[in-house]
Design goal:
Length: 444
């Protein structure tokens, strides 16, 4: 039980602590955009940044905000891909029974917001933004659960995490199919051939992080040039990272013990210098440690902190700055309102309705120590779209006024959904509901 719960607890702690930084950065971006220095906000993020040499074809020149949204966010999607693969192979999505409730909830949380937005926005400008309200921000939702302390049952946290991961899969599919345009199939074909090569290497359990990094950069560039959003390359490359260890744990313990005995029995040359035998023993133990660690788990652990504490805050700083004025939106105020309503009511109705149907038809089970009132609270939290919604908004709209209207709706809808979800959970969770998450209970 500890082997299952410890990685989950570390993941939740990382996401929830980063949500505080994400929230602070987002507030700063809004204040900056609405201050007397707001013009500097736009000027800064739209400065051109060039890599390569402009006198030939081997260069890329983009505004800074696109380097963030196309480049840094590819790393974000890469980590999402690692999480998805881990959950499918060794986590909460390993069997249909375990994954059924998060899957039903995610389907409801995608279909209903889209349907409500399209219904409210019928015949009006901005219909391309239908994908914006279907996303859930896992960092903020887990952050809100943290505010409730130990009263939150482990089953509720697991459900929310698994649901958000399935929701991310849906968002990636939508981005790949509906928000990629003018596709150059020849370049995409080259990318997929290279991708198939590294996938074959992974299948044969042949892995080099340097080779995979180089290939990942090439595949990212080909996706970028092909017209398919390059973040899709990130999640695809994640699925090529092998999860298998090259050395099993029992063999690792035996071999490391042997090398440690050699290290301990050998006499060092001096207080500062090791003997040749000790150097060989240390190198052998380092090599064994690399082999016993799953490449997928190692990469996810290494990159998750960078994504949570660096990439996501930078993305929020670059994208959350919107001028809070409905008057400035002109005839586009309906976009803000429709996105906000779709986020709040679409997710709440969709998640709650399909989850309830699945449970009543015995296609899924309520998580342990969780009731329907708490499920309603989590359904509201599903409407907190923020990061992914902002990302899709930049893909859906080209005109700056449409993007600004969408951002306004995302901020309003996410705020309302987050507050409602928190209040419902605050008054429906008992003080001792989360005791099953304590270390003592886990040990049992």
């Amino acid at each position: 039980m500890r082997r299952i719960s410890d990685p989950l607890k570390k993941f939740i702690q990382l996401e929830t602590s980063s949500s505080i930084i994400l929230f602070a950065v987002s507030i700063f971006a809004v204040l900056w955009a609405n201050s007397s220095y707001g013009y500097l906000y736009e000027d800064f993020w739209y400065q051109k940044f060039t890599i390569g040499f402009a006198d030939n074809s081997l260069y890329l020149s983009k505004p800074l905000i696109l380097w963030i949204n196309d480049g840094l966010m590819a790393i974000f999607f890469f980590v999402i891909g690692l999480e998805v693969k881990r959950e499918i192979l060794a986590g909460e999505l390993t069997t249909l029974r375990k994954a059924s409730l998060p899957i039903f909830a995610a389907i409801g949380g995608m279909l209903f917001p889209v349907a409500i937005f399209l219904f409210l926005n019928s015949g009006k400008a901005g219909a391309d933004g239908w994908g914006i309200p279907m996303a859930t921000d896992i960092a903020f939702t887990l952050g809100i659960l943290t505010l409730l302390g130990k009263r939150v049952p482990l089953g509720l946290k697991i459900f929310l995490t698994a649901f958000a991961i399935v929701d991310d899969i849906g968002a990636v599919i939508v981005i790949a199919i509906f928000y990629s345009s003018n596709i150059q199939w020849e370049l995409l074909g080259y990318a997929m051939l290279i991708y198939a090569f590294v996938a074959f290497l992974s299948y044969r359990n042949l892995y080099s992080k340097y080779l995979f990094f180089l290939v990942g950069c090439i595949v990212w560039l080909l996706f970028l040039k092909s017209g398919v959003h390059p973040t899709i390359a990130g999640i695809l490359m994640a699925f090529t990272i092998p999860i298998q260890r090259k050395v099993d744990i029992k063999q690792y313990v035996k071999l490391v013990s042997e090398q440690f005995n050699i290290f301990r029995s050998s006499k060092p040359i001096s207080d500062e210098l090791l003997s040749l035998d000790q150097i060989h023993a240390v190198n052998s133990m380092e090599n064994l440690t690399d082999k016993v660690n799953s490449p997928l788990q190692n990469l996810e652990h290494t990159l998750h902190g960078w994504v949570s504490y660096v990439i996501m805050p930078i993305f929020a700083l670059a994208n959350a700055g919107v001028v809070l004025s409905l008057d400035g939106l002109g005839d586009l105020g309906h976009i803000s309102m429709n996105i906000a309503l779709a986020l709040v009511f679409g997710n709440t109705i969709g998640i709650m309705l399909l989850s309830t149907i699945a449970i009543k038809l015995k296609l899924a089970d309520l998580p342990e120590n969780v009731n329907f009132k708490q499920l309603l609270g989590v359904s509201f939290l599903g409407g907190l779209g923020f990061t992914m919604s902002l990302f899709i908004a930049n893909l859906a709209y080209v005109e700056e006024n449409l993007v600004a209207a969408a951002k306004m709706g995302i901020i309003i809808g996410s705020l309302v959904a987050g507050v409602c979800g928190y209040l419902i959970l605050r008054f429906t969770l008992s003080e001792d509901a989360g005791e099953d998450f304590d270390d003592e209970a886990v040990e049992e």
